[in-house]
Amino acid sequence: MNLLSTPSSRADELRDRLQRVRERIAAAGRPADAAEPHLIVVTKYFPASDVEILAGLGVRDVGENKDQEAAAKAAELSPLSLSWHFIGQLQSNKAKSVVRYATSVHSVDRLSLVTALGKAMAAEQRRLDGEGRAPRPDLNCFLQVDLRTAPARDADPGRGGAAPADLPRLAEAVARTPGLALSGLMAVAPLGGDAGEAFAHLRKLSEQLQADHPSARNISAGMSSDLEAAAAHGATHLRIGSDVLGPRPHVR
Ligand SMILES: *Cc1c(COP(=O)(O)O)cnc(C)c1O
């Protein structure tokens, strides 16, 4: 055994970091009627061995933003029965792959993607049926909202997220597609803006959505730097990467 770097050091680091994040979540203020938000640990760029350590620490929900990487980790760790959340921009031609492992997609932002996910779910159910296996649960869909206002949004349109005005049409499409369940809304606080303001806006949009779709009450918001602001505005799902895993390697 190498006494200079013990094999348990990464496990110790992850345990301590996870513990601190869990304490922050428990201490964060939240609306009077809100339950403590769920923690999704974003494991992108980190190896399956880290995910395995986290699973041993009680983590059940993990987030990934690239299909190839997520599919490989999910396959390797399939005995752990984790819940995989797809949180990155998703090309329609990846839908078929994503529905094989993901329980949720947080980045549904256009009608063509809703169509692709619906088709992929139908094909997946046929595949499972053909193999004599039980059907999978509906895919939980969060509509990703672009919270930037007009000038910034127009200058850089390719970042993912639907304009607030497009949400009713998207919600309707998800709600009427077999195999898809409308879960709620997702957003990233705009860079350089006030996260509290952004999440307050998101909560308003969520209330509007729930007027037409009462069960779509989830709000996926909050990352390492702004989880307290998200919790304060009623986030139900926090997506936390670097404060649990450490700084990401800056490749890719
Ligand atoms: C990477 C990522 C996160 C996690 O960000 P951290 O700042 O590392 O906590 C959350 N949401 C999305 C959409 C991401 O891509």
TrEMBL record:
InterPro entries in UniProt: Ala_racemase_N (IPR001608), PLP-binding_barrel (IPR029066), PyrdxlP_homeostasis (IPR011078)
Family annotation (Pfam families): Ala_racemase_N
Keywords tagged on the record: Pyridoxal phosphate
Cofactor: pyridoxal 5'-phosphate
CDD domains per record: PLPDE_III_YBL036c_like
Keyword Transmembrane helix: no
Domain Alanine racemase N-terminal: 18-249
Domain of life: Bacteria
Cell wall biogenesis/degradation recorded as keyword: no
Modified sites of kind N6-(pyridoxal phosphate)lysine: K44
Alphabetized SUPFAM superfamilies for the sequence: PLP-binding barrel
Alphabetized GO MF terms: pyridoxal phosphate binding
TM spans (from-to): none
Family designation: Belongs to the pyridoxal phosphate-binding protein YggS/PROSC family.
Role according to the record: Pyridoxal 5'-phosphate (PLP)-binding protein, which is involved in PLP homeostasis.
The name this protein goes by in its record: Pyridoxal phosphate homeostasis protein
Organism, as annotated: Arthrobacter yangruifuii
Lineage, uppermost ranks: Bacteria, Bacillati, Actinomycetota, Actinomycetes, Micrococcales
